[in-house]
């Protein structure tokens, strides 16, 4: 076979000799690659943006879950019953107060978590069962949650979530009861500070109490100090951002200290992270994939166009290709020559397209027509490499068809007879 | 003893028509070409001259017989070896010149050197210039075919055929597209160039004037080669 460097040299000569056609094909590829690069970059930027937001609001590994261990349940329940009878006519007892940030809302609202003696289920307003008891008049409304009897809890648990606020506040908030114990044993509170929309659809996002942000930790301590009699286990979910996640150990130590100070017994609070970031990243990955497919399709159409032009030009080059065969070129050498020509055109177009995309972004940003919101402030190296790789792979795939056809050119056609 | 560069024995070739009928073109044909010899092959249209040339130039494998090129049997060669031997042993001159239209005279003449060894490729500049001087076109080295006359194009084709120092030049109606005066000049260049390079020449031609200038004249008829005069044209 003719040596590859020589074939590459001759392919370059061929591309240069056919300036008009080559230039046109390079331009088409460049435009397609520029489009693909920008679209791809938008997808990647959106993905990175959401990942960063998730990391910022939920911690690098997602939602932080803290389980407060067993307490002396019967003692606590007896004490609770007495409190309930005294303070609320047998209906409820405050467990703690704190601040919460509603999904989509910037202002903190006061939160009071109350418990209801499971033995006095009948005294609880039907609204509680229907979950409407959290409803308030505005963002400043004091809200409350409850620990209910198994039957009441079951009823509420079936509803899964409660809504709070007026028409402009439709975020999920409330308590969720798990019925894995004869007594009300498991209360989950999901806390989120800021970036409410990100957790609006979180399946655990019932009540937002911040941990590690604003006054959330303080309110948690206060809550924990009073909550030692509430259940066998009480779990507090916190999605308080990277800051809260980063303070997991500190937070747990604080909670444990608060529990001990309140006289609670039982195992210490332990913590674990629940990776909810995947949910969000999965959604943006889908978006990025769609954008990638769009970009790749544009490029594929352009490269297919180049392959079709190459195919059409084979007729014009029939004599030349047959001549190459006649002077000793093997079929494979001719195939490699034509493929190399296509790859050179595609590569030149791809480089031009990437450069054009990068320059375009820079110009847009400098001219004040910022592309930041589209993630187009700059083209990342990864995107450039992806664009060039995709171009070459497509060029090699689609360019192979005319190349193989060229290799089959029979030199006998050159003879006059 | 003069070396045999081509030795074709008992060559037979036929074509199958679309209706399945077989038409024999060559049958039991023998031809031996010596180094530096020039041979003209004449014959009626359809007598098989181009088929013979394609067999001689390793563009086609005969259906019968044996063929040696520089003593090497060709019926056992792979496609790759076939292509290599074709590039090494033969130079081609075609009726329609077949120059690469967008490439310069230099690139056209240097084309066969692309399959040569490293040294030949490296020294192609000097080789091409020497050949263009030989055919009288040293001042047209940067021209493209569209800037050349028919005679000049054929001289470029002759230089290209000799570029890789082949053992044989196969010319297919080299003067067929030229006026008589230009044809005479071009044939003169072809004969002189092949002689000065010590290369054998097999030329297929209708032109008796061209045939007369070669060492040996043969006529292809009934699938075989005959000495001139042995067959009535």
Major sheet of chain B, described briefly? 6 strands, mixed
Helix percentage range of chain A: 55-70%
Rg of chain B, nearest Å: 18 Å
CATH fold-level assignment of the domain at 37-59 and 88-227 in chain B: Rossmann fold
Question: Which quaternary structure do these chains form?
Answer: heterodimer
> What is the molecular shape of chain A?
elongated
Number of structural units classed as domains of chain A: 2
Structure description:
The complex is a heterodimer of chains A (417) and B (233). With 417 residues, chain A is an alpha+beta fold. Chain A has two domains: 185 residues, no CATH class; 212 residues, no CATH class. Chain A is built from 13 helices and ten strands. In chain A, the strands form three sheets. Chain A has a five-stranded mixed β-sheet. In chain A, helix 1 packs across helix 12, helix 7 runs parallel beside helix 9 and helix 12 packs antiparallel against helix 13. The longest helix of chain A is centred in the first third of the chain and has 40 residues. Chain B has a domain of 163 residues: Rossmann fold (3-Layer(aba) Sandwich), CATH 3.40.50. Chain B has a six-stranded mixed β-sheet with strand order 6-7-8-3-9-10, sandwiched between helices. In chain B, strands 2-1-4-5 form a four-stranded antiparallel β-sheet, with helices on one face. In chain B, strand 7, helix 7 and strand 8 form a beta-alpha-beta unit. The radius of gyration of chain B is 18 Å and the shape is globular. The interface between A and B is medium-sized, with 29 and 37 residues.
Question: What's the gist of this structure?
Answer:
The complex is a heterodimer of chains A (417) and B (233). Chain A is an alpha+beta fold and 417 residues long. Chain A has 13 helices and ten strands.
Give the tags.
heterodimer, A: 417 residues, alpha+beta, 2 domains, five-stranded mixed beta sheet, three-stranded mixed beta sheet, 13 helices, 56% helix, 12% strand, B: 233 residues, alpha/beta, Rossmann fold, six-stranded mixed beta sheet, four-stranded antiparallel beta sheet, 8 helices, 10 strands, 33% helix, 27% strand
């Amino acid at each position: 076979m003719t040596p590859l460097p020589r074939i590459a040299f001759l392919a370059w000569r061929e591309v240069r000799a056919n300036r008009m056609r080559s230039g046109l094909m390079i331009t088409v590829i460049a435009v397609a690659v520029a489009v693909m690069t920008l679209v791809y970059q938008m997808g990647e930027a959106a993905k990175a943006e959401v990942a960063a937001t998730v990391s910022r609001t939920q911690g690098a590994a997602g939602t932080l879950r803290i389980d407060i261990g067993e307490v002396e349940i019967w003692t606590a329940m007896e004490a609770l019953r007495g409190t309930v009878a005294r303070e609320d006519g047998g209906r409820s007892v405050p467990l703690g107060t704190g601040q919460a940030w509603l999904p989509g809302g910037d202002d903190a609202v006061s939160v009071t978590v109350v418990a209801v003696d499971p033995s006095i289920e009948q005294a609880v307003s039907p609204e509680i069962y229907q979950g409407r008891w959290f409803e308030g008049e505005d963002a400043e409304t004091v809200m409350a949650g409850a620990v209910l009897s198994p039957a009441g809890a079951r009823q509420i648990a079936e509803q899964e979530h409660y809504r709070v606020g007026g028409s402009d506040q439709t975020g999920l908030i409330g308590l969720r009861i798990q019925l894995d114990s004869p007594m009300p044993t498991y209360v989950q509170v999901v806390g989120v500070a800021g970036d409410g929309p990100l957790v609006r659809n979180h399946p655990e996002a019932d009540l937002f109490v911040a941990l590690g942000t604003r006054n959330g930790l303080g309110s948690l301590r206060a809550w924990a100090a009073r909550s030692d009699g509430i259940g066998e286990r009480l779990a507090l979910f916190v999605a308080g951002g990277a800051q809260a996640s980063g303070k997991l150990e500190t937070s747990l130590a604080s909670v444990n200290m608060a529990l001990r100070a309140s006289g609670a017994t039982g195992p210490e609070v332990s913590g674990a992270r629940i990776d909810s970031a995947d949910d969000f990243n999965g959604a943006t990955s889908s978006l990025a994939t769609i954008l990638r497919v769009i970009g790749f399709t544009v490029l594929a159409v352009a490269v297919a166009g180049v392959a079709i032009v190459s195919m059409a030009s084979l007729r014009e080059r029939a004599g030349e290709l047959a001549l190459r065969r006649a002077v000793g070129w093997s079929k494979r050498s001719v195939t490699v020559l034509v493929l190399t020509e296509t790859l050179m055109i595609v590569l030149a177009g791809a480089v031009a397209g990437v450069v054009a995309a990068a320059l375009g972004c820079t110009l847009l940003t400098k001219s004040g027509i910022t592309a930041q919101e589209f993630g187009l402030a700059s083209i990342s190296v990864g995107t450039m490499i992806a664009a060039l790789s995709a171009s070459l792979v497509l060029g090699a795939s689609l360019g192979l068809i005319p190349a193989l056809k060229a290799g089959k050119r029979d030199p006998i056609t050159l003879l006059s007879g | 003893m003069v070396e045999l560069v081509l030795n074709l024995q008992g060559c037979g070739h036929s074509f199958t028509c679309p209706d399945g009928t077989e038409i024999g073109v060559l049958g039991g044909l023998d031809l031996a070409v010596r180094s530096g010899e020039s041979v003209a092959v004449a014959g009626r249209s359809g007598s098989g001259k181009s088929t013979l040339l394609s067999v001689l130039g390793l563009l086609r494998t005969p259906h019968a017989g044996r063929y040696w090129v520089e003593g090497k049997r060709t019926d056992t060669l792979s496609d790759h070896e076939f292509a290599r031997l074709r590039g090494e042993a033969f130079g081609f001159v075609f009726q329609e010149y077949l120059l690469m239209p967008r490439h310069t005279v230099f690139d056209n003449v240097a084309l066969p050197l692309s399959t040569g060894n490293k040294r030949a490729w490296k020294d192609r500049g000097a080789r091409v210039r020497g050949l263009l001087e030989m055919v009288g076109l040293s001042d047209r080295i940067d021209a493209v075919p569209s800037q050349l006359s028919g005679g000049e194009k054929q001289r470029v084709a002759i230089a290209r055929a000799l570029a890789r120092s082949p053992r044989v030049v196969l010319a297919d109606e080299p003067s067929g597209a030229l006026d008589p005066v230009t044809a005479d000049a071009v044939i003169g260049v072809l004969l002189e160039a092949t002689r000065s390079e010590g290369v054998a020449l097999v030329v297929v031609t209708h032109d008796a004037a061209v045939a007369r200038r070669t060492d040996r004249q043969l006529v292809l008829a009934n699938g075989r080669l005959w000495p001139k005069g042995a067959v009535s044209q």
